[in-house]
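Good morning C.,

I know you're traveling, so I'll keep this short. The sequence:
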Amino acid sequence: MQTFPMFLRMTDREVIILGGGEQAAQKCRLLLKTEARITVVWPELDPELEGLAQAGRIAWETNIPPSARLSAATLVFVATDCPGSAHALHALAEDAGALTNVVDQPALCDALTPSIVDRDPVVVAIGTEGTAPVLARQIKSKLETLLEPGLGDLASLAGRLRPAAARLQPKERRNLWRWVFSGSPRARHKAGAEREAAQQIKDAISAGGAPKEDRAAVSIVGAGPGGADLMTLRGVQRLQEADIIFYDRLVDPAVLELARRDAERVLVGKAPGAASWPQDRINAVLVQAARAGQKVVRLKCGDPAVFARLEEEVEALENSGLSVEVVPGITAASAAAATLKQGLTQRGEIESVTLTTGHLKPGTGAPDWGTQLVPGVALAIYMGVANAGEIRDSLLSRGHTAEHAVSVVASAGHPEEQTLHTSLGRLVEDMANAGISNPAILMIRHPKSDAAPQARQLRAVG
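The tokens, ready to paste straight into the viewer:
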């Protein structure tokens, strides 16, 4: 970072604005939300600023303050429409050693004004170091829709009740505020029942902590196929509430960054050539952590219900008397279809989709992929790279031609995603040449109108 984000205490501190037009008025509107003393310096003021001066909300001076006055100010804004005067005024402020912002001149700024989401005392500042103010405003717009208008009032209420809650033990205190901002009090406050929400919090403090939540002891959460932006909002919420997270090897590190900083993270995935976690051991640590009173998240790649041994973990937890919640995620087949810009189904052509595995458990028979692929079906084969030869042979033995089109998407949803269009006959060779490895999805379609789909022109995108 070239700049350091910080909130400055502004109560009874002077801010000087050099300028008297619209740019100066914009800064005034922002600063009037604080408790700063605002002085606008310019020979003439536009009507808005003149009205503020007459109402006593700002001070107005016509002469540039001396150097000592500028250096004593908490902030100096240079807000003129003239580039020449802006540079001259910046030079004066810089010589005085003042912390200065020059409007629309990020290279001249010691301090940059962020886009602000204001839910006082909750304030979110978004900065791009002056490189992309339009992007900052877009982010602001999204956050405005996520944070209800009255959230600041609830935060203020929590601040007033914080001394009373200080007598609670640290764990009970943390659970209390988690409940306040993610449970019934926030829901009631958002619905306009502020008094009811306040009484709920007071009663909880008097009772020694938040009421028992009707929440699962363990949340099995789908991390989606790749980046953190492909997770569901509920999945993100569960990560932020978790005390401990047991995650798979292929979970993107950016997803884990969504969790609380103090949440414990435990890798339970199986990596080739490394010590593996057998399923019964995973089940045991999930039960142990939940029984210890921790909020547990079991984080799985993609969707927990697709080739992720969901039932085994649910059964182990429920047999131990623990409640379980499953939060779905985007499965890799959906991400691969999005990459290919084609539907998993297609009206009149592809009436069903079959999700099947190409990763075989030792000692078990292979799926009959050739039987699964019939007219009107799309076949999505998970983790099929290592057994691509068997998949090819199975399909060829059932009458599919060597020219039948196959699309392969490796690491769907990740920055290193690869796409390959080939045919059954060239599948193994072309994947090897392109350096395709698991995790990958083989997408094979058999439209009703095409008895023998032809291969697309081969292309690889790295």
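Safe travels,
E.
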